[in-house]
Write a structure and sequence with these properties.
The structure is a homodimer. By secondary structure, chain A is α/β, with parallel strands linked by helices. Chain A folds into two domains: about 70 residues, Arc Repressor Mutant, subunit A (Orthogonal Bundle); about 110 residues, NAD(P)-binding Rossmann-like Domain (Rossmann fold, 3-Layer(aba) Sandwich). Chain A contains eight helices and nine strands. In chain A, strands 5-6-4-3-7-8-9 form a seven-stranded mixed β-sheet. In chain A, helix 1 packs across helix 2 and helix 1 runs antiparallel to helix 4. The longest helix of chain A is centred in the N-terminal third of the chain and has 19 residues. The interface between A and B is large, with 81 and 81 residues. The structure holds nicotinamide-adenine-dinucleotide (2 copies). One nicotinamide-adenine-dinucleotide (NAD) sits at the interface of chains A and B. One nicotinamide-adenine-dinucleotide sits at the interface of chains B and A. The structure holds a DNA duplex (30 and 30 nucleotides).
Chain lengths: ~230, ~230
DNA sequence: ACGACTTTGTTCAGGCGTTCACAAGCGGTT
DNA sequence: AACCGCTTGTGAACGCCTGAACAAAGTCGT
């Protein structure tokens, strides 16, 4: 019996698996048939041992002495991360950021497809972005119902993000990606991931200050790696 | 002796401090004079005890039995995160995403100011975005030198991100925020933070599948919190 | 057919981060 | 002036993740 491993996969590992998958897709396009953990790790910017540990959650998927089959590992990762099926997403708030996301081709290639664009601004409604018409936000519930969207992406102003989130949850959306700078409150069983660009910049500024601004204050800074973490 | 605490601050804590700071700024605008850790934690979407521990890295900054002074804590956090001084940033790749970032007012209010917009496309060069003209990417080194920019934001296609990064590093930029889906390689002493939206969506899809798609495969999912993590 | 080399998969230890729980301290009240 | 309730600050335990070392296994060369 194959007896698929019931091991649970840490969330940090899942995020890295997605990165490996993208690297593998590029390698496959380049015609490569095999990769070693060292090469893959270098391309993904992680430690080789850590990469092997990550992959081990899926069970053995390489050949000792040889490495990993590029196509084989790609398919295995695709499977583990949710299969090939297209994931319908709705996007609320088609402003500057929302328009950029709706236009972006990189999501579709990974199986994420925007099937509904919603906005409240009459000037925005009706405009076509990325081949899709912007619809009034009042139709949010109808759009989710008719498209069976499972992921909601919020790019509205912060003040209305919670109410938009509540409406998404109320019609069954259980996965939400939030770009507004607020902490959303959701019932158990709903996953929210937040992207906060101001925080990223602030962390960079802090690390820079720590390195140069006030050397006496914070001495034993961890030595930085040669490659991005 | 005051003897400022030489304690090092974990990076995860720094990221949360930035969130607290934003919440406090909103509270100060609302006229509040004091907050408890519980209320602040709820607004930031974290555990109250964790919040107090985070703040304790800055030394005592609250009053027992009362709470934290909104203005006082805001100033203390501002200080810890790098002071009030404006941080000049350059942005490379003024496409859809880059334009949205350049236009965004939320960065300036936190002290991050774009002082240079670079692109290679002749159609983009000369256009004004967010009050700043787009300049040819050939002038990157000159722009960094004349503006003393310390942070570089990369929103170019993935293929050229590494070369853009190398040029930034060569002229002294030691903090880089990367939106391109590649792992940048940098020398020690340079910090790179990566924002990968595809990975965020992929993680959401995985968690969703784990919850419903194949229940027999991964059973003991951690109970989700009532609020965003 | 055998041996040596390469690369994986796993195990172990160490460090971080998070959480809980409690003592210390301050303001308000009697 | 002393007490009481409230909130902070911190100490300790727990669990997760990361990084390194080792053993298993397969392949290539002879
Ligand atoms: N643009 C950036 O670079 C950037 C960076 C970081 C964070 N953010 C955050 O992302 C969000 C969007 O930013 P933006 O720059 O695109 O702003 P924007 O003003 O350009 O776009 C917001 C859009 O949301 C729409 N909207 C307003 N209320 C709505 C509602 N109730 N329902 C549906 N749509 C509604 C508006 O009509 C507008 O089109 C904000 O919360 C912002 O803080 C943006
Ligand atoms: N748009 C999104 O929603 C989104 C989401 C996730 C990731 N990304 C990533 O962000 C990056 C930009 O995405 P986008 O949608 O804005 O793409 P885009 O094509 O709209 O913009 C890219 C810009 O970079 C410029 N450019 C190309 N080569 C350059 C060079 N050598 N130097 C300077 N500028 C150069 C182009 O002229 C263009 O203006 C890509 O790497 C993309 O994968 C974008």
């Amino acid at each position: 019996m194959p007896q698929s491993r019931p091991r649970i996969i840490p969330e940090a590992t899942v995020a890295r698996l997605a990165v490996y998958l993208r690297v593998l897709a590029g390698l496959a396009d380049g015609g490569r048939s095999h990769v070693s953990s060292g090469e893959l790790a270098s391309a993904a910017g992680v430690n080789p041992a850590g990469l092997r540990k990550d992959l081990s959650y899926l069970g053995p998927c390489g050949v000792r002495g040889v490495g990993y089959s590029v196509a084989g590992l790609r398919d295995r990762l695709t499977d583990a991360l949710g299969g090939e099926r297209s994931r319908p997403c709705v996007l609320i708030g088609i402003g500057r950021l929302g328009s950029a996301l709706a236009d972006y081709a990189g999501f579709a290639s990974r199986g994420f497809e925007f099937v509904g664009l919603l906005d409240t601004d009459p000037a925005a409604v009706g405009r076509r972005v990325g081949g899709l018409p912007v619809r009034p936000v009042a139709e949010l519930e109808a759009v989710v119902a008719e498209t069976q969207a499972t992921i909601g992406v919020i790019t509205t102003p912060a003040e209305v993000a919670q109410s938009v989130c509540d409406r998404l949850v109320s019609v069954g959306v259980r996965s939400i990606l939030n770009f507004a700078p607020v902490a959303l409150t959701v019932p158990a069983g709903v996953d929210v991931r937040k992207v906060d660009l101001s925080v990223e910049l602030q962390v960079l500024a802090f690390l820079d200050q720590q390195r140069h601004g006030t050397p006496p204050l914070v001495a034993p800074l961890r030595a930085a790696q040669g490659s991005a973490r």
